[in-house]
C-alpha cells in the first residue's frame, strides 16, 4: 500500500531522475533469478544524492510515526536497506539494528546485528519489495528474537501479486513510498516512456516469470 499519490509521484520522479530505476522495454535486464525484466531498480543510489536521500529519510520517518507510532527500534534489511535504515533511525533519534539473510557461520553467529530487547516495538525498513520473501525472512528473525514487529516501510514495490499474498499470509503490514503503477504513470507523464512501452511494461508486471520482450 502506498501512503498517498503525491508521495508516490514525487518518489517515482526522483528515482527516475537519478537512474535508481531504469526502464528498458526493448533491452531487458536479466535478474539473478533468471527473469527477463524491462526494469532495474537499485535504490542504494539514493544514498549518493543528499537532497533526495534527505527526502526519502524524512518522508519515511514521518510516515512511520503517522501509521505505526514511534517504535523503540528501527531495523534495516541487509544489505540494501542498511544505509537508509540508519538515516531514518537517526532522524527519529532511535536505536538501529540490521538483519542478515541468515545467521553468520562464525563468531557470535548473529542474524540480527545490534542490540535489541524482547518486547520492544520495531518497524522494519526495506529498500525494495519484489516477492517479499527476503523481507519477510527478516521479520521472522525479529519475531523469533521476541520483539513486536509493528510493520514494514519500503521505498518501492513492484506490486507483484505474490508479494501481496505473502505479506497477507504473514500478517505483516507494508507501506511503500511508491510502486510500479505510480512509476509507470509518472514515466508516461514526463515522456520517459511511450504509450506502447507502457503497455509492454504493464504486461511484464502482470506475469514477470513468463514475460518476453517485444
TrEMBL record:
SUPFAM superfamilies to which the protein is assigned, alphabetical: PRTase-like
Catalysis performed (reactions): orotidine 5'-phosphate + diphosphate = orotate + 5-phospho-alpha-D-ribose 1-diphosphate
Keyword Magnesium: yes
Keyword annotations: Glycosyltransferase, Magnesium, Pyrimidine biosynthesis, Transferase
Phosphoribosyltransferase domain: residues covered: 51-148
Cofactor(s) the protein requires to work: Mg(2+)
Domain of life: Bacteria
Coiled coil: none
Class of enzymatic activity (EC top level): transferase
GO MF terms held by the record: magnesium ion binding; orotate phosphoribosyltransferase activity
EC number assigned by the record: 2.4.2.10
Alphabetical list of Pfam families matching this protein: Pribosyltran
Pathway per the UniProt entry: Pyrimidine metabolism; UMP biosynthesis via de novo pathway; UMP from orotate: step 1/2
Residues reported to bind 5-phospho-alpha-D-ribose 1-diphosphate: 100, 104, 106, 126-134
Function according to Swiss-Prot or TrEMBL: Catalyzes the transfer of a ribosyl phosphate group from 5-phosphoribose 1-diphosphate to orotate, leading to the formation of orotidine monophosphate (OMP).
Listed HAMAP family: PyrE (MF_01208)
Record-stated family: Belongs to the purine/pyrimidine phosphoribosyltransferase family. PyrE subfamily.
Protein name listed in UniProt: Orotate phosphoribosyltransferase
